[in-house]
Specification:
With about 325 residues, this protein is α+β, with helices and mostly antiparallel strands. It has three domains: about 5-65, RNA-binding S4 domain (Structural Genomics Hypothetical 15.5 Kd Protein In mrcA-pckA Intergenic Region, Chain A); about 80-160, Pseudouridine synthase (2-Layer Sandwich); about 170-310, 2-Layer Sandwich (Pseudouridine synthase). It is about 20% helix and about 25% strand. The protein contains eight helices and 16 strands. It has helices at about 20-25, 30-40, 80-90, 120, 155-165, 240-245, 260-270, 300-310; strands at about 5-10, 45, 50, 60-65, 90-95, 95-100, 135, 145-150, 170-175, 185-190, 190-195, 200-205, 215-220, 225-230, 275-285, 290-295. The strands form three sheets. Strands 5, 6, 7, 8, 9, 10, 13, 14, 15 and 16 form a ten-stranded mixed sheet that branches. It has a four-stranded antiparallel sheet with strand order 1-4-2-3, with no helix packed on it. A two-stranded antiparallel sheet has the order 11-12. The longest helix is centred in the middle third of the chain and has 13 residues, at about 155-165.
């Protein structure tokens, strides 16, 4: 059972509704209990009774009564070197926007049996105002590369609008096989969560699925393998992977979930990971209005794969001429 607690509203939470602030601040507290405590006047802001939709303002004090929280499940386990690790993968940080180069195999968020993830590590970067960086978008565990975070609630909202409006260019590098018949184009198809044998994947369903579109360019090819650049115009789960495999007919190497050729990996002695990397992001900074153009270099195991097929490991924006 917790004692009475006092919280000061940070600058980052200025203007936020009380109910949303409570859910974020007390994730292990049953939401129904929090609502009841507000309704019965046990939660006070600057000593006054409030409602769940009351707006909080910077510097106010929120008083919470003693209550029992749910036991921790899947708690993030911090490491002493988490901050050093985040520093080592930081590509850009101006105090408002933080861009990381996420390694392969590291989850972005927690879940069942996940004890270490980027979202948990961001707690090491809380600033003097008590503001914690927030994720703006997601990457699959098996995809490496650019991951954008915001260092304030306002910047999170601004970047979220950019992603929703698609005023942002995210370019992914991939090795695919076989070589598609066209060197460039747009892939379109509805995406929906799979069932049965593919319940952990997504499938193409143009009737019930969410509309999705991916542009692609073939940068180079050698034998039966191509270096492709992808630009997802929408942001669906596994969009590039399923579009490439099921509509373009060219799975990404190492993508066992969607039919990537393991034999080619074994034949060339390559790393068995998914050969997909978020390589470049281009957008207008919401505050300065300057264009940010950030690249994430290929990790060593993918450099080895690219070099095995004599592909360049870095290229200029392949979609620049068209758009």
């Amino acid at each position: 059972m917790q004692d009475v607690r006092q919280f000061q509203v940070t600058e980052d939470d200025d203007g936020q509704r009380l109910d949303r602030w409570l859910k974020k601040t007390l994730p292990r507290a049953p939401y129904a209990l929090l609502q009841k405590m507000v309704r019965t006047g046990q939660v006070r802001v600057d000593g006054k009774r409030v409602k769940t939709d009351t707006r909080l303002f910077f510097g106010q004090t929120v008083r919470l009564p003693p209550f029992e929280e749910k036991p921790r499940v899947g708690t993030f386990t911090p490491h002493d070197d988490d901050k050093n690790f985040l520093d080592s993968i930081t590509l850009y940080d101006d105090g408002e926007i933080l861009i990381l180069n996420k390694p392969y195999g590291l989850p972005v968020q927690g879940g069942p049996h996940i004890r270490r993830h980027i979202d948990g590590m961001l707690g090491c970067l809380i600033n003097k105002k008590g503001v914690r960086p927030r994720l703006v978008h997601r990457l699959d565990r098996d995809t490496s590369g650019l991951l954008v975070c915001a260092r304030s609630l306002r910047m999170t909202q601004n970047l979220g609008k950019l992603f929703e409006s698609r005023d942002i260019k995210k370019i992914y590098y991939a090795l695919i096989s076989p070589i598609p018949s066209h060197q460039s184009g747009d892939i379109e198809g509805g995406i929906i969560k799979g069932e049965g044998a593919r319940k952990e994947a997504v499938v193409i369903d143009n009737i019930h699925g969410k509309p999705s579109r991916t542009s692609y360019r073939i940068i180079a090819h050698n034998n039966d393998v191509a270096f492709a650049a992808f630009w997802p115009r929408t942001g669906r789960m596994h969009q590039i992977r399923v579009h490439s495999a099921d509509l373009l007919g060219t799975p990404i190497l190492g993508d066992e979930k969607y039919g990537g050729f393991v034999s080619l990996i074994d034949e060339h002695g390559l790393d068995g990971r998914l050969h997909l990397h978020a390589a470049q992001i281009i957008f207008k900074h919401p505050t300065t209005q300057n264009i940010l153009d950030i690249k994430a270099p290929l990790p060593p195991e993918l450099i080895k794969s690219w070099q095995a097929f004599q592909f360049p490991v870095d290229v200029d924006d392949p979609f620049q001429k068209k758009d």
